[in-house]
């Protein structure tokens, strides 16, 4: 039995793609996931499953949401050790973690596209791409940065979703790490 973390993109934002977390927990439990927990309203799920295929878990969760709530939501599933590695390999250790975010990518981008990323237009901001993770430092707030999901998706041609450092720490805690 493995513990996983699923992060959903674009739910419960400004009244769009509303998904009540209690209903989502019940739905995923009915679909065979165990010990399903959610954290805040932005689509953070910790669960256990026998399944070892990320693709199968992504599809199952995405299909369940599509069938039950009527819309498609990008889903990224991680093993807890992947999230732990994101903390352990943070190249921006000198930055204030209250201003640090982690953007998770569905797939590792090509090295060419990652190398071609332009710097932030805000000289106070910085980012670093490490495999399927992007560390984003935005001292003026994530809501003001151009280094958002859409920026990275457009440039890297891969699905992205972002969580702040504190949320990621809480997800690790819920997962038992």
Task: Give a quick set of tags describing it.
Alpha-Beta Plaits; 33% helix; four-stranded antiparallel beta sheet
Task: Give the topology.
Layout: E1 2-8, H1 21-30, E2 34-39, E3 44-49, H2 54-69, E4 75-79, H3 80-88, E5 100-105, H4 111-115, E6 126-130, E7 133-137, H5 149-156, E8 160-164, H6 165-174
Antiparallel strand pairs: 1-3, 1-4, 2-3, 5-7, 5-8, 6-7
TL;DR of this structure?
The protein is an alpha+beta fold. It is built from 6 helices and 8 strands.
Structural class: alpha+beta
CATH architecture of the largest domain: 2-Layer Sandwich
Spatial gap, N to C terminus: 15 Å
Our count of domains comes out at: 2
Please trace the helix and strand order, writing H or E for each element.
EHEEHEHEHEEHEH
Identify low-pLDDT runs.
Answer: none
**Proportion of residues in helical segments:** 25-40%
| CATH level 1 class label of the largest domain | Alpha Beta
In words, what does this structure look like?
There is one protein chain. The chain has 177 residues and is of the alpha+beta class. The chain has two domains: 2-80, Alpha-Beta Plaits; 84-174, Alpha-Beta Plaits. It is built from six helices and eight strands. It has helices at 21-30, 54-69, 80-88, 111-115, 149-156, 165-174, and strands at 2-8, 34-39, 44-49, 75-79, 100-105, 126-130, 133-137, 160-164. A hairpin with a 2-residue loop joins strand 6 and strand 7 (133-137). The two termini are 15 Å apart. The mean pLDDT is 92.
């Amino acid at each position: 039995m493995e513990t996983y973390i699923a992060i959903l993109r674009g739910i419960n934002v400004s009244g769009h793609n509303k998904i009540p977390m209690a209903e989502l927990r019940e739905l995923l439990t009915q679909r065979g996931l165990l010990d399903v927990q959610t954290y805040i309203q932005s689509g953070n799920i910790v669960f256990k499953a026998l399944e070892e295929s990320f693709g199968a878990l992504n599809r199952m969760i995405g299909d369940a949401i599509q069938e039950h709530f009527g819309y498609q939501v990008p889903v990224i599933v991680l093993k807890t050790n992947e999230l732990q590695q994101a903390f352990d390999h943070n190249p921006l250790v000198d930055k204030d973690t209250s201003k640090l975010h982690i953007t998770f990518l569905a797939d590792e981008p090509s090295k060419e596209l990652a190398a071609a990323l332009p710097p932030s237009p805000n000289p106070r901001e910085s980012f670093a791409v490490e495999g399927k993770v992007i560390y984003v430092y935005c001292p003026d707030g994530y809501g003001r940065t151009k280094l958002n999901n859409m920026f990275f998706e457009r440039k890297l041609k891969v699905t992205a979703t972002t969580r702040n450092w504190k949320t990621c720490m809480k997800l690790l805690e819920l997962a038992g790490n």
